[in-house]
Amino acid sequence: MIKVEQYDDLLGRTVLVVRDDLSFPSVSIAKMRGIRAWTRKQRGKIVAVVDTWRSRNGYCLAEAARGEGLECIEFRPFSFHPDSQKIVNEIAEAGARIVELPPSVPGFPMQAVLEREARKMMRNNCGKSGEDWVMLPRGAKLEETRDGVRDECKKLLEKYRPGTIVVPCGTGTHLTGIYTAILESASKCKAVGVFGYTINTASLYSWMSRFSGGYPLRKEQLSIVNTQYTYSTPLTYQLPFPACAFYETKAWYYIDNEPKLKEPIMFWNIGSK
Prior knowledge:
- With 273 residues, this protein is an alpha/beta fold.
- The protein has helices at residues 29-40, 57-68, 82-93, 108-126, 143-160, 173-184, 201-211, 248-256; strands at residues 4-7, 15-19, 46-50, 72-77, 97-101, 133-135, 164-169, 190-195, 222-226, 265-269.
- Mean pLDDT is 89; it is low at 105-109.
């Protein structure tokens, strides 16, 4: 079971922090488990990923590929950001071959452009898609990660019986796993997903319904907080544990400024720096 720490004196309320960040540097235990399970199925293939400049999905995939003896290629936009080279070094040390592509359009539209270029390069140099190589789904939206989070969350629900679970979100994969755990455990807990950037909530609810396996979205047990930040805007906020200024700090700020959350509150610290 993932370690849980209790903080009572910081926000004036009981907050249980799920330390999903403690097993691997810069990435969550649940995400690493999911990517490893996905990679294990790709026997004999080259595995590839298209990352944003600050994503750690490439690191997860490189570690997983090394464990399975597979070649890993990470495509990423070139960036002058001082943290970018640190991430590149981490991924290279984990064994991936890194291809830096020139950025073309800011934000998420750029990701689609990069993915198209990456797939073209893979087809030209690595054979046939699906047979010789495979690309990690964008944002690492994996059923394996969803199910790993669901299984961990069921244990936490039984042991701690939280009233609310607040989840920092990038894609909604962790949130979907937590929400399905709540439904399958017949818990009265509510999952609150706090996104690190502006999203289309209607589209997200629709995707979550499909990705959960068709579970109904009960508004009394699921809510999505649209923070109105841009993808590249960090929030500086003091937390007592390692956290990502693009995701976790925004979710912690939400807890600090939302007095109506049912206690005990559980904060799922994914911890992607």
